[in-house]
Amino acid sequence: MAGDQQSALFQFASSFPPPPGVKFSYGTAGFRADASILTSTVFRAGILAALRSAKTRSVTGLMITASHNQVSDNGVKIADPSGGMMTQEWEPFADAIANASDPDELLKLINQFVIEKDIPFGRGQPAEVLLGRDTRPSGEALLEAAKQGVNAVGGAIAIDMGILTTPQLHWMVRCRNKGFKASESDYFAQLSNAFGCLMDLRPKKIKTDATDSKVIVDGANGVGGKKLAELEKRVKGLVIEVRNSGKGEGILNEGVGADYVQKEKLIPDGFGKSDAGTRCASLDGDADRLVYFRVLKNSEKVDLVDGDKILSLFALFIKEQMNLLGEKKEGIKLGIVQTAYANGASTDFLKQMGLEVVLTPTGVKYLHEKAAEYDLGIYFEANGHGTILFSEKLLSWLETRNAELSSTFAGSDTQKAALRLLAVSKLINQAVGDALSGLLLVEAILLYMRWSTERWSELYQDLPSRQIKVSVVDRTIITTTNAETVVVTPSGLQEAINSEVEASTQAAADCLAQSVAQHVKHFLTLATSN
């Protein structure tokens, strides 16, 4: 770096001293912590995003959100030019600069990295970073810190896209780098137009009544509720009633939201027994997760329709459309990607459909990467985060097939199947999981199949399960293989787990979970004492 650039960086960094005694780590969620200690980290993330843009000679993104965390928290994560998560290769550098103790150390780390990665610092086209934030009160000040970080990199441009859902920002980055229109209005137009196309392609015999075409959505008192209310104005053929939109007195993610509904299986605030019989859904705080649920007449619990069942619904619909396209699929490969957190009943259901199902380690970055290996890859976590990826090869084939059919079998079931899949590719957010686009796709498929939430929920019966946390001194002692389904170390732990009887009831699953937790504590105590 030139001397004037180093001097400018040093001066900027001096205004953002790191909090003492805090260590930050960049993961799938980016950096996340109490908002009061994040200013320095967000400033440095701005530098990171600008360097990533300079290296790739593409637009990158920076989103300020803590998703489903409590309102006092906040976070920051970087969107790569593809619109996906920042490459894992840069995560160690992210950690290093976030934890640099002073401007001198920060400058040294940046200099070394620029040389190592041959980043055209100040050369060629200027770096460009799109910035977004959710509705958290701390977001405005942190956004300013991010701007300062971007501006600290010579010639870099920070563009404030305003208050957005996380998936909206990722979508914008992806579209900008593909040369497409990428405003929020363009996002709403693409989703509503694609949904309208799917509605028009329903079988003629299908008619809907008021109950079929209404969904009540819990907005988690966050940005998703606000944006969904805007999208609803553009959508035809579907009534979306948004509750917990963030306009009232409700608190972000408190007793509401997809994370609360999925983990607690309780009715969120703003819903009650009178909603029994109506389709209900819940977004998380930044609208990248979606779950459905049914309110039960005589219980505070809900009948949860989680990410596994959303995945199963999507897979069922897509497989039907692919089958309608006939035999001429020229090696098109369809794959389903899950983690070990997926309920085993969903995996069995998908395999019984004849689909290829693979497991990856936990984390969206692993799921997305694996799904991209297929021509049509579908991934979802049980928490409601997931999407569908279409390869350029598949999209080109669908366009060609549609053109062929329009001249020979226009209006046929085969042509409509091609058009439906093309519409899905535009409706679904292929950058990241997106609760708004996912919601519209679920609704389009349910209306196409004429299914109620209850019918959908009955696709398969979830196996009993229990998820608990075990506090340990050093979690790195546990290593796994086979997508985190088999323990490698400490020695003997997997054998102890295998000795437990498989649970066939919820009560047995609860007992099994406690037994496994005790084995974990026992073997880690032995490992740390040696």
Question: What would you say this structure looks like, in words?
Answer:
Helix content is 43%, strand content 16%. The chain has 18 helices and 16 strands. The protein has helices at 3-14, 39-56, 91-98, 103-116, 139-151, 166-178, 184-200, 223-232, 258-264, 307-324, 344-352, 364-371, 392-408, 413-427, 435-449, 453-457, 493-498, 506-529; strands at 31-34, 59-64, 73-79, 128-133, 157-163, 214-218, 239-243, 279-283, 290-295, 302-305, 334-339, 356-360, 376-380, 386-390, 479-481, 486-489. The chain has a five-stranded mixed β-sheet with strand order 1-3-2-4-5, sandwiched between helices. A five-stranded mixed β-sheet has the order 7-6-8-9-10, with helices on both faces. It is globular, with a radius of gyration of 24 Å.
